[in-house]
Specification:
- There is one protein chain.
- Helices cover 62% and strands 2% of the residues.
- It is mostly helical.
- The chain has a two-stranded antiparallel ribbon with strand order 1-2.
- The chain is elongated, with a radius of gyration of 21 Å.
- The termini are far apart.
């Protein structure tokens, strides 16, 4: 009888542990709302930073090896598709997130490190500007449409915490954190646009 009781207790404890793990990996509505607000605010940041630019302002380059506002905007638009594709094709089919990690800490790390422009990085070849959209206005339009698709993915996908893959930040990121990464990436490059516009040689009109 004692063995039966012990076995039953073990099953109860095991079930409790599994339930706790599932709960830890679930995404709260508050987190989902936070990410959505971040995607919206960083979308608006790109729009505001590029509003009303003339052709000369779009295409001004502070130096031969630096990007123009048009090139940065194209990069932002292309990266939106690239990163969301990474999520749907790689992250959502990856192994479960390592046990015991504090996802809230990693969330904040993404929001802090990715927009930080104190360290400059080379864009991968697929995301370097090539005038793939044909014009700055078309690139901006593509970005806005792509951001709407990203927001729909965030709203409708239930298991954003369940899988994780390696990232440039030295930590595995789950799908939710990669969505934050998308918003943070556009914030980072909005800062780059503002740097170009702050150049003393930036055209007045």
């Amino acid at each position: 009888m004692r063995n039966i009781v012990k076995y039953s207790l073990a099953l109860v404890l095991a079930f409790a542990c599994l339930t706790g793990l599932a709960s830890a990996q679930s995404l709260s509505q508050a987190d989902r709302d936070k990410a959505l607000a971040y995607l919206e605010s960083t979308r608006q940041g790109v729009i505001d930073a590029t509003n009303g630019l003339s052709a000369a302002q779009w295409n001004f380059k502070p130096a031969p090896d630096r990007w123009s506002v048009a090139e940065v905007t194209e990069h932002i638009a292309a990266a939106e598709d690239y990163l969301r594709g990474l999520i749907t094709e790689k992250v959502m089919t990856a192994s479960p997130r390592p046990a015991g990690e504090d996802v809230a800490v990693i969330d904040e790390m993404v929001l802090k490190m990715v927009p930080d422009r104190s360290t400059h990085r080379q864009a991968p070849d697929p995301l370097k500007p090539t005038n793939r959209f044909g014009s700055p206005d078309a690139a901006l339009q593509h970005f806005m449409e792509a951001r709407t698709t990203t927001e729909d993915f965030l709203k409708k996908t239930p298991d954003l915490r369940e899988h994780a893959i390696d990232s440039p930040l030295g930590k595995k990121l789950d799908a939710y954190e990669w969505v934050l990464f998308i918003g943070a990436h556009s914030e980072r490059h909005t800062k780059q646009i503002l740097e170009v516009k702050a150049d003393p040689n930036f055209p007045k009109k």
